[in-house]
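COMPLEX REQUEST
Ligand: potassium ion
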Amino acid sequence: MDNLELFKILTKKIKEKDIISPKEMEIIDNNCEYLGISRILLMENAGKCVAEEVNKFKVELGEVPIFIFCGTGNNGGDGFAAARHLGNCSVILLGKEENIKTYEARENFKILKNLAEFGDISIKNVTHQNEILEILNEIENLDKAIIVDAMLGTGIRGELREPYKTVVEKLNEIKKKNDNIKIISVDVETGDLNADKVITFHKRKTINKENAIVKPIGIPKEAEYIVGWGDLKALSKRDPNSHKGENGKVLVIGGSKEFFGAPILTALAALKIADLVAVASVKDVVKKITNPELITYKLKGDYIGEKCIDKLIEISKKFDCIVLGNGLGVNEETKAFVNGFLERIGNKKVVIDADAIKVIEYEGFEFRENFIFTPHRREFEYMGINLDNLPSSTIVLKGRYDVIFNKNNVKINKTGNSGMTVGGTGDILCGIIGGLYAKNEAFLSACCGCFINGYAGDLLLKEKGYYYTPIDIIEKIPHVLKLFG
Ligand SMILES: NC(=O)C1=CN([C@@H]2O[C@H](COP(=O)(O)OP(=O)(O)OC[C@H]3O[C@@H](n4cnc5c(N)ncnc54)[C@H](O)[C@@H]3O)[C@@H](O)[C@H]2O)[C@H](O)CC1
Ligand SMILES: [K+]
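STATUS: Structure written out below.
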């Protein structure tokens, strides 16, 4: 079974989420763009859905005034598109036109302005409290009306601020006195607006109420499965006022008298993302580490064995994430170390790669959710993952297509090319994942690690053909992060 077949099996085994968070929706939105589905297309479909629901109210109420309250974000953009589908309505922009946030919302507002000169769509730009109260008083004196709440959607953060606060309070008062004032909320009710209907797009959001009506707007299910720049945009952002060590501390435990390169590649890759990276290894490896940016912990012996567990459990406490396995070697000594260390490391974030994967005793092994495994095909088969009892740990099955999964999620990454078969790219991948995992959750870190590693390889393929080296890939990591971060 190749990776693509495994992916398809997993999409059937892992139940698709029918309620998602605004953050998950934002990742899907951005990955739609990555897949070539433009936001303006989605906004058009969203606006059409809203107009259809307003027309249902018109069947009940007859030809009544329609007021569309729009914010300056894409929720407002949906309102603009809905206005065009409806015609004969009043669009109230709660804010200055120049503050309309996005291209797609601005384009829809521009169209309305072109129409408003001649047609039956009126536009009011209101920014002052008295202008807003005047419109609300007009609505209060009507027998019947339809209100569209396109003020705030999934972009809402924290307590409702003015002018939305006044509008919501006043509309709730009006609604209480006259049930023939019907309110439809776009995607999400703004604050505690008492809407008759909420039309939410693609999937119900965790911030929706039970009665939300879900409408498809052309987002294919693949947009939830393919890793794109939407995942990268969801990564935690560096706080500009942060101090050294606050952007991730990674400890690489690997290497042996036979292999010194692997843990160094892992550490150098992690260092492009985290701001404090150390390598714990045997003396033959430590003496080869000349990079002053890397901290080292020297361990006794030719291999990291059981005798190192206590010291490494102690050292691990200073780090956010451990990357375990690169170049460890595969013998009884390293086997005893890896199994003992993982048993005692508790819920510390650990990326487990290469030789560590090969020496774990999987019989009765606890696949904890704080573990990320990064096997290639053979290592994956050795792990013997039971597809009917998927693990809490996140598994990254590397290949032409990387498949990233755990018991609740599955995604596939298509960046990368056969130039990456060169030795060391696996060490780099788990270094990138370790750097991300220090400050992000496991599944997102694993997906983004695969995307970044592969995308760096794709950029190098364009620049150098297939003959790029692991160090070239490491040097490309910041470029990829800057492109999409
Ligand atoms: N999911 C989809 O496929 C589509 C979603 N669409 C619509 O887009 C909105 C989300 O748009 P966004 O611009 O991200 O955010 P909002 O419009 O919700 O808010 C924007 C704006 O509001 C300000 N703001 C945030 N919090 C507050 C607050 N507490 N008080 C006052 N103001 C606040 C802030 O400045 C934000 O920038 C989604 O809901 C859908 O309606 C697409 O159009 C179609 C596809
Ligand atoms: K809304």
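REMARKS: The first strand starts at residue 19 and ends at 20. The first helix runs from residue 3 to 13.
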